[in-house]
Amino acid sequence: MDLDEMFGEGWCVTLAPYPLTETLQRMGVADPVPCPGDLDHTAEFRRGDGAFVFGRDMPGDWALTIEFDSWNGCEHDVLRALTVDGRTAISAYRDPDTRTATIAHDGAVLGCLDLSGGYFEGPSGNVDTAHPVVRLLTAAGFDSSDACEPTGEAATEELDGCLVLAVRVLTGITLTAADFAPPWSGGLSRATY
What we know:
Number of strands: 9
Helix content: 10-25%
Shape: globular
Distance between the termini: 30 Å
Order of helices and strands: HEHEEEHEEEEHHE
Number of helices: 5
Largest sheet: 9 strands, antiparallel
Strand order of the largest sheet: 2-9-3-4-1-5-6-7-8
Strand content: 25-35%
């Protein structure tokens, strides 16, 4: 699965621990509509000011969303809204210069995974290595020390490999290319972050 090949330079993928309609509402989409066809044929839905968020339900009451040329899913306010009540969410984005996944749990942003390097950084440079979610990531080989040296499965130079591993560790879902096939629903996010 090559997300850059599938979506181009600018995209944001979020895994949220709510059913799709609730996830989209928490991301500022008031009235989601079905989007026929695959993501390559949805340009008519992506008009107007704001970010258009596409989504689909995933196993275990999770939702997968994707944005093109917007990164609302990585905004800290959005991640806080998606993780209340002890829940965890992950949102990864790529712009031409950055490949990062932001991790949040129980209304707080824990930090970011550098998907190109396989290491984890806290929101202000400090990592709470005792946090159970951070321990899941470090057990998978993501490095949270100043050395920035991932091990095991996390020691890959594959952007998609790091993302798939982090998603699997945090959600139990193994992303495949089939997860990015239709059907989708979505709408324009009216939230301003």
